[in-house]
Amino acid sequence: MTHTPDTHARNDIDTAPVPTPAADASTPARGSLRTRGVGKTVALPDSQLTILDDIGLDITAGERVAIVGESGSGKTTLLSLLAGLDVPSHGEVWLDGVPIHAADEDARAALRAQAVGFVFQNFQLMPAMSALDNVALPLELRGKSGTQAARELLQKVGLGERLHHLPRQLSGGEQQRVAIARAFVARPRILFADEPTGNLDRKTGLAIEDLLFDMDSARATTVVVVTHDERLAARCDRQLRLDAGRLRA
Ligand SMILES: Nc1ncnc2c1ncn2[C@@H]1O[C@H](COP(=O)(O)OP(=O)(O)OP(=O)(O)O)[C@@H](O)[C@H]1O
Ligand SMILES: [Mg+2]
């Protein structure tokens, strides 16, 4: 399924001080992702480990893409690079039309806050904050009141009766739903989710999956999801397979 991004619906998004994409035809569009020759290597005590090698990809605005591959093939590393959480050892990454390989940490953080939602493999909720405060946080960090939007989203994900629970008072599936609500609250153009249905039973996994796509269909978000779940992968427009750090056709 392909859908057209509704850029007009996003004019309410704050303009943070991030580099403005140059207006030429070769510049990727808002909401899109592009990499060229991306590699990631890390130094081990007596050798270099290549985690990703020569990754080139284009994901268009509004597309839903699954990244699949064996454990250790580099999926989480690639997602971190695409989302601007980490920088490549070499190559180019364009996030939301911005060449983030040339941006410093402050600029990448501003772009993430403005354009990106991220659902982490292990949720990463703030342990001392209620579900409501966790979901409101991305808006509060931008100087806005997030309480009303957070309450509405938590109701939407079926947690209207759990607003004041701390993460440790929630089940795994409930924490995952809080993490998804938090990722959507600031209305990102691009949503990244790392194994959003991992460690969940089939029924809960299916509910989470529906939630991801329902939230998305209302907003035409670009979605990049890392998953081992074949059913979830099949619901995406396209699958990218990583094999030992390389993209397989
Ligand atoms: N900072 C690091 N230093 C050293 N090695 C690393 C580092 N980060 C990742 N790796 C290694 O890179 C490889 C890819 O890791 P990554 O987490 O991207 O895999 P993955 O495909 O997400 O696996 P999984 O499906 O198990 O989550 C692994 O072999 C991992 O051990
Ligand atoms: Mg991983």
UniProtKB/TrEMBL annotation:
Keyword terms, alphabetized: ATP-binding, Nucleotide-binding, Transport
PROSITE patterns in alphabetical order: ABC_TRANSPORTER_1, ABC_TRANSPORTER_2
Listed GO MF terms: ATP binding; ATP hydrolysis activity; transmembrane transporter activity
GO cellular component, one term: transmembrane transporter complex
A Pfam family matched in the record: ABC_tran
UniProt cross-references to SUPFAM superfamilies, sorted A to Z: P-loop containing nucleoside triphosphate hydrolases
Protein name: ABC transporter ATP-binding protein
Organism listed in the record: Thermomonas aquatica
